[in-house]
């Protein structure tokens, strides 16, 4: 017995959902991901029950807001895996994820929780981010440019910590801390025996400008 075709959402329901997402983006940018959902519903001109009808919980709302950004981020990661030198690819990926996780105050903590919670609506996307990180780490290690004890969990922790730092420090200072930490994770390959630490730190900045 075949299932009856699913009914398409009514036009007004689609409009409500789109309006809720737009207002959630505005509220979260102003107040962070812990902002009262009642504020989102009020700004969207709907009852709080309507919000929960579309998004059963806060994580579902955040996940819907991030869906398109996640896809763009994952596509960027795949492009880095196939078209960039391993070290540059890893560094660019770290900064891309940091920027992604710093979109809203508190988002970094939400993503960290999502990685460890299989029931979270954010779990699958967090796992995919970690998988891409792991592949980039393998590539960087294969060319002798990354310490062997660096793990995907280390990179994920760095990215979340850096995103949190962006919430509390000037952008330049936060990015400098990322560069210093990445420098500690990188090694001197045989082809870079004469490279100084200052040179490598400058290279981290140059990678982002390319």
Return the structural class. mainly alpha
Count of DSSP strands: 0
Strand content: under 5%
Oligomerization = single chain
The ordered H/E elements are HHHHHHHHHH
| Helical coverage, percent range | over 70%
Instruction: Tell me, briefly, the overall form.
Output: elongated
What can you tell me about this protein's structure?
This protein is mainly α and 210 residues long. It contains ten helices and no strands. Helix content is 73%, strand content 0%. The chain is elongated, with a radius of gyration of 20 Å.
Which properties best describe this structure?
210 residues, single chain, 0% strand, mainly alpha
Task: Produce a short descriptive summary.
With 210 residues, the chain is mainly alpha-helical.
Secondary structure elements and their pairing?
Elements: H1 11-31, H2 37-44, H3 48-54, H4 58-83, H5 86-101, H6 107-116, H7 123-142, H8 152-168, H9 171-185, H10 197-209
């Amino acid at each position: 017995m075949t299932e009856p075709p699913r009914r398409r959402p009514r036009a007004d329901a689609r409009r409500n959902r789109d309006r809720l997402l737009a207002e959630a983006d505005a509220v979260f940018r102003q107040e962070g991901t812990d902002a009262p959902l009642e504020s989102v519903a009020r700004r969207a001109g709907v009852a709080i029950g309507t919000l929960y009808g579309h998004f059963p919980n806060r994580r579902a709302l955040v996940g819907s807001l991030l869906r398109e950004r996640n896809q763009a981020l994952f596509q960027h990661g795949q492009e880095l895996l196939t078209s960039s030198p391993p070290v540059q690819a890893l560094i660019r990926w770290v900064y891309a994820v940091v920027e992604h996780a710093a979109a809203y105050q508190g988002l970094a903590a939400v993503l960290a929780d999502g990685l460890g919670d299989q029931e979270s609506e954010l779990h699958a996307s967090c796992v995919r981010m970690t998988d891409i990180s792991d592949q980039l780490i393998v590539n960087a290690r294969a060319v002798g440019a990354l310490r062997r004890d660096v793990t995907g969990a280390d990179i994920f922790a760095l990215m979340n910590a850096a995103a949190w730092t962006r919430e509390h420090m000037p952008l330049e200072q936060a990015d400098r801390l990322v560069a210093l930490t990445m420098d500690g994770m990188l090694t001197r390959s045989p082809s870079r025996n004469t490279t100084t630490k200052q040179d490598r730190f400058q290279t981290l900045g140059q990678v982002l400008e390319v």
